[in-house]
TrEMBL record:
Domain Major facilitator superfamily (MFS) profile: 7-382
UniProt-recorded Gene Ontology molecular function terms: transmembrane transporter activity
Keyword hit for Thylakoid: no
Keyword terms: Cell membrane, Membrane, Transmembrane, Transmembrane helix
Protein's name in the database: Cyanate permease
Principal localisation: membrane
InterPro entries for the chain: MFS, MFS_dom, MFS_Efflux_Transporters, MFS_trans_sf
Tagged with keyword Iron: no
Alphabetized PANTHER family for the sequence: CHLORAMPHENICOL EFFLUX PUMP RV0191, PURINE EFFLUX PUMP PBUE
Amino acid sequence: MTTRWPPILAILAGGILGAAQIGKVPAAMTTIGAEFGLGLAGAALLVSLFALMAALGGLAIGLAAARIGPNRALLAGLGIGTMAAGAAALAPGPAALLAARVAEGAGFLLLTVAAPGLIAGLATARDRATAMAIWGAYMPLGVALGLASAPLVAAFGWRVAWGALAALLALAGIACWRMVPRAPVAPTGAFQPMGQQVRALVAARRPLQVASAFATYNIMYLGIAAFLPARLESLGAGTGMAGVAAAVAALANAGGNLASGVLMARGVAAERLVVAGAVAMSVTAAGVYLVPSAIAATALAVLACGVGGLVPASCFAILPRAVPAPALVAPAVGLVMQGNNLAQLLAPPAIGALATIAWPLAALPLLAAGLLAALAGRALTR
């Protein structure tokens, strides 16, 4: 058997285009806020509501995806995400736009829960770690793509930019439909009851520690990805330039993901990478909102995202060996996504409210999140 890279890359494309629906919001946040009369905290809801479904039911959806089969879950997620993204681009008012964002988040959750298992099945044992490290970069690459739509927003408006990203997501869905083979669906009797699976995950403890590290990392990452354009604009940068700078920071995060894979291949423990990445990211991310220069803020954001990229790839590497049985991998992914999206739901409005008072206050939750992520990583080393 050889690794089937074409379908793996098709799944990666779906993940990147799904994550682009997160990055598109910061690129257009000030424009949408002005059109609909939303303040910075209100516009930040467009980021956080994307995470609502996962925050409420990530574990349950992970269990459901395992029962209907990962291929069906993948295609359903891409289909729901495409329709919701199109609806968001055509939304006549803030209520419809917020509802579309919730639906986009539901589709993205199905996609991200199903993808790791499919990729693992398409890769050989020798290539599996490499394939999972590549998959781990889907979020920063997608967010970078969404942020890179800022020049399109400046030239043609946010609706055109969002419509273009919806069309690209539809193309990724077609590619997955044509290229990704169907994975077998296990019979219902092969699954433990949901309560028993949850108890097993809690008893193992390490999945909870991974989920904690990933969620607190995401607070720091969103603290940059969601607000860097607005921060740079407050320091005198133009909308297009601010979006491009944020996209570069997101690409640096993807580089950190890949660097983590290289370091682990050379024998560096994933748990230690979590601690180092969390500490370094918290300090540099906080600096973004403390320095008075757009150039300095951009440099710190790129550095923070780069070193922070060590954390998610390491968490993905730890997770399969953190569960007591292979059947618990999918529920564990759902658990991690639930914690991650709960942070995504709560953090942007809180950071936005602090930034509305004074930008330096936005540094406080980033420092706290870095400390919590480092503590979770240290617990994993034990």
